[in-house]
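Box S2. Input/output pair 1.
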Amino acid sequence: TKNWNDSYWLGLLPDDMPICKISIPGAHDACTATVSSVGVLANADCQTKTIKGLLVYGVRYLDCRTRSSGMEIPDEILVKLVNTGINFTEQLFKIELNKYKHDGIAWTFHGPMACGESLETVFQHVTDFLDSHTSEFVIMRVAYEALGWAPLEQDFDKSVSVGLFHDVEKKFSDRILPYRPDMKLGEARNHILLIN
């Protein structure tokens, strides 16, 4: 239509439309625009647009992965491990475990690669967008990003990560609604619809 604008496309739809009837453009591993795209690590770079850019271009579903450790494995160590043929998972686990830091922040990750933004920052970007685009909504899936570590360490990291996610969820609770298939667009507007 002549009034089409990627930033406001949901505004063209009626309030009584069930959101389950809308085809929602989405982004897999939405937080990866800032991940290194060098060599073997390029596989972690799924997006070329930041969260803000994705939203402006009309994306309304964001797949976000999080962990509690803010420590990133340096690119040169990952490349060295892969190129030397050493058991990658075992060596990565040893490096992460030896340097593990719980810094009290839920960070965005794609596998072992830190994406450079906290989950709280991602939620802030989304709410800032919704503040200026009140006809829109954003569906977010926030998942724990496991690395396949030994069960005790992974359970510890997951429990810390889930707690940190709930802290972020509380901070933005006035903007978050649980996703329901029967929800109408009018109810969803200007909210984050959370899928976990």
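Box S3. Input/output pair 2.
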Amino acid sequence: HGTVFEFLRNDRFDANSYYFNPGTTPEAEQELRKNQFGGALGGPILRNRLFFFGNYEGIRLIQGQPFTVNAPSANARNGVLNCSTTVGGVQQAGCPTPGPAAAGSTYTVPVSADLKSYLGFYGVPTSQPANSDFGSYIFYGRLVQPENFAQGRIDQVFSSKDSAHETYMYDDGNFTQPDAENNYYLLSHTNRQLGL
């Protein structure tokens, strides 16, 4: 006897998620492709003596995911910092006393070429609190996750009182997603095998 199955889900069947639309302007639906499929088969090898059973399940998942990244503001990248906060508890030269009176006041520090090249790994914030040197932006990365799972079992009957069985399990999968700055992809691979 045997069975087969297939489960399909993708963005063409889904409504847009509230969590992808925190603002007033709706954003495009995020990519989603999920296929889950497999089957099982079992029966006798030798009548009343030897039996087998096996099953397989495969998953193919591609999913768009939002990532929120905190990054220096456009002014901070050029060394123009706000006076409304102290650095290490020290009031910066040319700034009024930190607090409401300092709102909108700035001071300038040099930014080395090495630091500027590092800042290139980050995007420019699209959301930023008032009088802050940092803000955040969102990018949509792509998660890719294929997985294969299989299991097999053999049962043998020697007598009405004696029997034995052997089981083998196999699970192999990858998990790929972008890093927090969307500069490169991170890969995690798992492989498990078990025999009893």
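Caption for Box S3: Strands lie at 2-10, 32-46, 50-72, 80-82, 106-108, 134-157, 163-178, 185-195. The chain has two helices and eight strands.
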